[in-house]
Design goal:
This protein is α/β, with parallel strands linked by helices. It is 37% helix and 15% strand. The strands form 3 sheets. The protein has a 5-stranded parallel β-sheet with strand order 2-1-6-5-7. A two-stranded antiparallel sheet has the order 3-4. The protein has a two-stranded antiparallel ribbon with strand order 8-9. Helix 4 (97-104) crosses helix 6 (143-154), helix 7 packs across helix 8 (222-230) and helix 7 crosses helix 9. It binds ligand 9WO.
Length: 259
């Protein structure tokens, strides 16, 4: 079973961003995932290949017509033998790491990318199984959101990441934000790398990184931190690190001076 994305889009060439570069390109070449583009223009009714029309009720801009989209979706379904249809819009439910992992473990989906002011609501009612948002902002179309989903899913596939790096160790996986990272030089513009990272003491380094993840999550994403706390039993080490973090805050120290 291979992850497969069938993308319904007026701009198939945009997808070179995921198919032609980086980790997702390598994974595609390794056969870890597949994709096809379905251009609704190929199912347009007239000689101008029109796929949009003016909104009923008036107002600015254009709306994508249901007919060509439904036919493009049907063609994709026929080739892959069914599949869920995901539509990308700010009206959808916010994408999470958990949903990405679920999707990466399926046969993939048909990704419907809207343009203009959106898609005729009847098409959404008839064909769309799930509506996904990346956050509270507006893009010019669903393509960049679809590519974000593809990239996030593909990097979860076994064998997609390089050199033993595992998606299981990244930011979010443990429900916490990532720790800070440093590379050479040891001093940059008078700013030194935290000493512990140069110590070669792997146990201390692991503990420091966990502490930074805890402190950052608590400070920057209190709702994420509350969730993390609620869904686990604190280890003795985590409890100790949190006490240290709280004490250091009371003394007026912040992340920048912590080490
Ligand atoms: C455009 C527009 C122009 C004038 C007045 C109102 C308007 N609304 C829109 C609009 O929402 N266009 C959308 C463009 C239609 C659906 C596809 N588009 C889209 C998807 N924009 N932003 C997203 C998106 C998807 C996922 N996460 C964040 C944003």
């Amino acid at each position: 079973m291979t992850l497969r994305f069938d993308v319904v889009t007026l701009f198939p060439e945009m997808f070179a961003a995921v198919t032609g570069a980086g980790i997702s390109r390598r994974a595609l070449e390794r056969g870890l995932w597949q994709w096809s583009a379905w251009n609704p223009r190929d199912w347009a009714e007239n000689a101008y290949r029109t796929v949009d029309d003016r909104p009923f009720g008036g107002g600015p801009g254009m709306v994508m017509m249901a007919g060509p989209l439904e036919k493009a979706i049907a063609a994709a379904k026929a080739e892959r033998g069914g599949g869920r249809v995901i539509y990308f819009s700010p009206q959808g439910r916010t994408l999470t790491h958990g949903r990405v992992c679920e999707l990466a473990a399926t046969e993939g989906a048909i990704l419907l990318c809207g343009r203009y002011e959106g898609v005729d609501e009847r098409l959404i009612g008839r064909c769309v199984d799930e509506e996904i948002s990346l956050g509270d902002f507006v893009l010019s179309g669903g393509e960049l959101a679809a590519m974000a989903l593809i990239d996030a899913c593909v990097r979860q596939l076994p064998g997609a990441l390089n050199d033993g790096a595992s998606a299981v160790e990244e930011s979010f996986v443990a429900g916490l934000l990532d720790c800070p990272h440093y590379t050479r030089p040891e001093v940059y513009e008078n700013l030194a790398v935290p000493e512990v990272l140069l110590s070669g003491h792997h146990e201390k380094i692991r503990r420091w990184r966990l502490k930074m993840s805890l402190a950052r999550t608590r400070e920057r994403r209190p709702e994420l931190f509350a969730d993390w706390l609620a869904h686990r039993t604190l280890s003795a080490e985590e409890a100790q690190l949190l006490r240290e973090i709280e004490t250091e805050e009371l003394c007026g120290r912040n992340e920048k001076s912590m080490s």
